[in-house]
C-alpha cells in the first residue's frame, strides 16, 4: 500500500490521498510518534484536520505519515499493532 509523509498543517494535509482507509502517525520533529489513528475512506484529510491546533482532538506534531490500506478492518488491525509496539504518548493505553 502507499505511504506518504507530509508536514502536519492544513496545506500538507490537503495533498494527502483520501480514496482508501488509512493508518496515520502524527510525529514530532525528532521522528517520535505522538499518536496513531485510523481514518475511513473519504475522511483522511478531515480526520487529520481535527488534530490540528483549534481542532476538537488536538495532538501536537510536525509531520504526519499515512499508510493506505485495502479495508478499514485491516487499518484497525495495523493501528492496534503499532500502538502496542510503540505506545504513543497521546494514545490511550490499553486500547
From TrEMBL:
Residues 19-92 form the GIY-YIG domain. The lineage of its organism: Bacteria, Pseudomonadati, Planctomycetota, Candidatus Brocadiia, Candidatus Brocadiales. Gene3D superfamilies: GIY-YIG endonuclease (3.40.1440.10). SUPFAM superfamilies: GIY-YIG endonuclease. InterPro entries: GIY-YIG_endonuc, GIY-YIG_endonuc_sf. This is GIY-YIG domain-containing protein.
Amino acid at each position: 500500500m502507499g505511504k506518504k509523509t507530509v508536514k502536519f498543517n492544513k496545506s500538507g494535509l490537503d495533498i494527502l490521498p483520501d480514496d482508501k482507509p488509512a493508518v496515520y502517525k502524527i510525529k514530532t520533529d525528532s521522528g517520535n510518534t505522538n499518536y496513531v489513528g485510523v481514518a475511513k475512506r473519504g475522511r483522511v484529510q478531515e480526520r487529520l484536520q481535527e488534530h490540528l491546533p483549534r481542532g476538537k482532538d488536538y495532538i501536537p506534531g510536525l509531520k504526519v505519515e499515512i499508510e493506505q490500506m485495502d479495508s478499514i478492518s485491516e487499518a484497525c488491525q495495523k493501528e492496534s499493532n503499532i500502538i502496542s509496539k510503540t505506545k504513543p504518548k497521546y494514545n490511550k493505553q490499553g486500547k
